[in-house]
Amino acid sequence: MSELNLILFGPPGAGKGTQADRLRNDFRLPFISTGDMLRGNVKEGTELGQEAQKYMDAGELVPDELIVKMAAERLNESDALDGFILDGFPRTIEQAKALDKQLTEVGRRVTAAILVDVPDQEVVRRISGRRLCVKSGHNYHVDFDPPKREGVCDQDGSRLIQRDDDKDEVVRNRLKVYHDQTEPLIDYFDDQGLMRRIDGTRSPAEVHDHIRAVIATLRMEDDV
Ligand code: AMP
Fold first, then answer.
1. Ligand 1: distance of its center to the CA of 56 in Å?
2. Full set of structural domains in the chain with CATH
3. pLDDT digits (tens, 9 = 90+) for 68-92
4. Residue 109 among the catalytic residues
């Protein structure tokens, strides 16, 4: 069977990070999140991180040329040569074209683009309650998954914070950017027969089952 080159996309707060953890255990595929990579660069204070931070803090997209280069380098690493799951990339038509070009040059292609769909008001509700452990990045939610002690990580006792770009006005801008710049990808992938939609308002377990079912179907289609 040939490789699985999957794109996972959707509005901020669709639960892609939660699904990432689950899918990582199911499939031996590298899970590549450009958001995580950028946050790593910001933390380490690299040149890319310094350049990217102002866009991220404002909920804007980092310019295509920076992101495309970063993603291309990551996809060329040995663990991604037999397949990958991309989260948060591509996010513009320009990025999608750059990805297609890179894969086509080596005889590869995107297998499917899985959209985890969640309406705006649910996005705002989910993100505004999100909290993160300053030390190890464990995730909590003040309503859905609260820590035992408010503001303190259950696992290592560190302080919980809200990501700057999870603050209300930034979330609204991230949603606007999603609708303006990323949603056009739905038609782009649809035209190529690659779009698969998933209802992201279901429980994490149901969304996970659905994604796995989609991937199983893709594998079967590939085998026949
Ligand atoms: P995420 O964790 O995927 O929501 O990404 C956090 C932030 O990183 C986004 O709001 C953007 O500023 C930036 N970012 C991540 N991926 C991309 C991308 N493919 N293109 C442009 N900016 C990105």
1. 7
2. 4-30+77-119+171-223 (3.40.50.300)
3. 999 999 999 999 999 999 999 999 9
4. no
